[in-house]
Amino acid sequence: MEIRWLEDFIALARTRHFSRAADDQHVTQPTFSRRIKLLEEEMGVTLINRQTLPLSLTPAGEEFLTLCEQVTDRVRLTRERLREISAGQQRRIMVAAPQSLLAHFLPEWLASSGWENRVQPYLRATGWIAHDYFQALARAECDLAICYWPVGRCDLDIDTSDCHHRVIGHERLIPVTGVTAQGEPHAVLPGTRQQPTPWLAYPKRGLLGSAIKAHLARLPQSTHLIAQSENLYAAGIKELLLLGYGMSWLPERCVSTELAEGTLVRAGDSRWDVPMELRLYRHQKQHHAELDGLWGELPSSSSYSRSQS
């Protein structure tokens, strides 16, 4: 028995006329009549009362019509669902993130959520600064963006009014430095006016640079720094620190191994730590089934505690 035979029977029950039902099914009337006859032979009963005008269904035909409608509806829904699954496999969610989060946060976060096969890192974003992520979301260049975000008040020239976000974790920027051959730190905070501490800075328009500046401004103790370089990448800054150049603030996840091994040490105590949120952003006008589905699966921001950092 074929599904199209059931569809033929439904068409005949609707029109009560072989010729019109054949037209609806886009087949010739002889072919249509033959398929209805094959269906009756398959079921072993007469389904159509051909002696009435218009045609009518036998009691068995009425019962069979209900079954046909249920089966064809189920097949249609299953077909649509399979197409959605196929489309979902072809379209992966593109997420943009800084290089440090791509390396030290995203893989673990995706694995813990079971989303490795649904989300693809957008590697072109590794060289972006803050506002680039939101411009990319607005033009649908990527679906999601993960950003560091200051916990305290910070003046940021970034318009996020068209975006929704969830807090998906926490991080701290901690002051670190390399060590001398004698095991002493190369540079320490807070420095003095006469001898400022050399540091490797982030771009002034970037989120990390803005967050560090705002945090230092809130501290009661003055900080005296002299920038030796400006680098967008935490990994690049870390390499320079390991070579003995000054100090800087790096995400704790990025330096946990080096701190444990002693190749990097703290350049200041915890008062210098800059608390950050890890935020996941999406543009409010961008929608597709995969993106909306994943967003709906995200826990609320309040379910992420500081202990996850």
UniProtKB/TrEMBL annotation:
PROSITE patterns: HTH_LYSR (PS50931)
Family matches, as SUPFAM superfamilies: Periplasmic binding protein-like II, Winged helix' DNA-binding domain
GO molecular function: DNA-binding transcription factor activity; transcription cis-regulatory region binding
InterPro entries per the UniProt record, alphabetical: LysR_HTH_N, LysR_subst-bd, WH-like_DNA-bd_sf, WH_DNA-bd_sf
The UniProt record lists the keyword DNA-binding: yes
All copies of domain HTH lysR-type, residue ranges: 1-58
KW Lipid biosynthesis (keyword) present: no
Keyword terms: DNA-binding, Transcription, Transcription regulation
Pfam families linked: HTH_1, LysR_substrate
Family (UniProt): Belongs to the LysR transcriptional regulatory family.
Record's protein name: LysR family transcriptional regulator
Organism name: Vreelandella songnenensis
